[in-house]
């Protein structure tokens, strides 16, 4: 094993934080964006391509890898890092999101969740202990507790019930994690509580008392307006320990990232850059560009001649429009790559701005570029 898990807060600029996470598989500069590799791959992209965008950590998913090819098989083949040829850090989601997204296929009890597999109909059980066991078999540098994620809006009684269950599962997850004796690896607790600030405060207080290596804010970007999400982040992040990383799960747009970093968040993941790329949408410093639109059909310009990533500088908008309209795989690969590179460049810009004490200026300049660039946001 190389270095054990640690987090160092290097600089703050008002609420924004610049830090460094150390894991057994390398270092991650924060604020950080994690590309989503749910099934052991960032969809359509090789690990070398993902690394070339600037990514230092990716996310895998306990539920999906449990079903196929199976955690025990991945462990026998050397663990997830070797299996997917990704030598850098990996964080694994525990399957809590699937408790919500696959609600029609599961039964929720105090003990855990029983799913009917969406692949073959087989019944599979996921408990806090089994979720930790799977993540240990995968070899995740950062594991997540099993939690219950609710879609919003929801009534307060239901939100409170799910939050309390998640706290009990947090205690069980921590005991299971400590029993695995994976010295140097990390387990994060997940703050729940929906859109209720008092419940979020209770969850944060109880979780910090359990002393996790990091803390996530879960159950957001699941149906609530952006202003509600940001209000919850603004109220919750300061309740988490300064000396531990803060992870906002499943978020989000470039604007979300800027606003959440401003409120003290260190880590993010989201399918948006790759999913939108597969559907003809590019993220650039000019804003979002929909390559499906006919006005790009004869445009010889690249997406961004100043981008540090060659894919954004090389291919014309006309060619990318053609690939999108023809549903060619190459277009999906190129736009997914361009989008991840833009997200990583945005995070790097935020890190530099925080270090220089000019985060608010960087935020304003970035958003002004989206509004006034020669390609309007779509």
Mind explaining what this structure looks like?
There is one protein chain. Strands 4-14-13-12-11-10-6-5 form an 8-stranded parallel sheet. It folds into 2 domains: 264 residues, Queuine tRNA-ribosyltransferase-like (TIM Barrel); 96 residues, no CATH class. It has 15 helices and 16 strands. The mean pLDDT is 95. The protein has 378 residues and is an alpha/beta fold.
- The proportion of residues in beta strands is 15-25%
Largest sheet: 8 strands, parallel
Span of the ends, CA to CA: 47 Å
Q: Based on Cα principal axes, name the global outline.
A: globular
Uncertain regions spanning at least 5 consecutive residues: none
Question: What is the tally of helical segments?
Answer: 15
Strand order of the largest sheet: 4-14-13-12-11-10-6-5
CATH superfamily of the largest domain: Queuine tRNA-ribosyltransferase-like
- Round the Cα radius of gyration to an integer and report it: 20 Å
Structural class: alpha/beta
Number of strands: 16
Number of domains: 2
Draw up the topology in text.
Layout (H helix, E strand, L loop, with lengths): L5 E8 L2 E8 L2 E5 L1 E3 L12 H6 L5 E4 H6 L3 H6 L3 H4 L6 E4 L2 H6 L4 E3 L4 E4 L6 E4 L1 H11 L3 E3 L11 H24 L6 E6 L5 H14 L3 E4 L8 H11 L9 E3 L5 H9 L4 E3 L2 H6 L3 E4 L2 E4 L19 H5 L2 H9 L3 H28 L2 H14 L6
Parallel strand pairs: 4-14, 5-6, 6-10, 10-11, 11-12, 12-13, 13-14
Antiparallel strand pairs: 1-2, 2-3, 7-8, 8-9, 15-16
């Amino acid at each position: 094993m190389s270095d054990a898990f640690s987090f160092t807060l290097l600089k703050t600029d008002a609420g924004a934080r610049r830090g460094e996470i150390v894991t057994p598989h390398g270092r991650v500069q924060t604020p950080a964006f994690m590309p989503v590799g749910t099934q052991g791959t960032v969809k359509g992209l090789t690990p070398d391509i993902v690394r070339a965008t600037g990514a230092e950590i990716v996310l895998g998913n306990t539920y999906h890898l449990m079903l196929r090819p199976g955690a025990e098989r991945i462990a026998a083949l050397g663990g997830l890092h070797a299996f997917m040829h990704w030598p850098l850090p990996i964080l694994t989601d525990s399957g809590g999101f699937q408790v919500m997204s696959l609600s029609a296929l599961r039964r929720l009890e105090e003990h855990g969740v029983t799913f009917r597999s969406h692949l073959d109909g087989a019944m599979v059980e996921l408990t806090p202990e089994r979720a930790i066991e799977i993540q240990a078999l995968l070899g995740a540098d950062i594991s997540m507790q099993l939690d219950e994620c609710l879609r919003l809006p929801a009534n307060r009684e239901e939100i409170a019930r799910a939050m309390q269950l998640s706290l009990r599962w947090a205690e069980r997850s921590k005991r299971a994690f400590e029993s695995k004796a994976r010295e140097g690896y990390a387990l994060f607790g997940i703050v729940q509580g929906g859109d209720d600030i008092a419940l979020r405060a209770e969850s944060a207080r109880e979780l910090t008392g359990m002393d996790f290596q990091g803390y996530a804010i879960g159950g957001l970007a699941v149906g609530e307006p952006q202003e509600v999400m940001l209000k919850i982040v603004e109220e919750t992040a300061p309740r988490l320990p300064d000396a531990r990383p803060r992870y906002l799960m499943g978020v989000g747009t470039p604007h979300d990232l800027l606003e959440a970093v401003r409120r003290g968040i260190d880590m993010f993941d989201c399918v948006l850059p790759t999913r939108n790329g597969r559907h003809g949408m590019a993220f650039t410093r000019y804003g979002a560009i929909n390559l499906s639109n006919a006005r790009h059909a004869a445009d010889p310009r690249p997406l961004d001649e100043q981008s540090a990533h060659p894919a954004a500088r090389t291919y014309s908008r006309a060619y990318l429009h053609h690939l999108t309209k023809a549903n060619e795989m190459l277009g999906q690969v190129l736009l997914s790559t361009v989008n991840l590179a833009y997200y990583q460049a945005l995070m790097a810009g935020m890190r530099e701005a925080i270090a220089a004490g000019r985060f608010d200026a960087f935020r304003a300049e970035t958003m002004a570029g989206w509004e006034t660039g020669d390609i309007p946001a779509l």
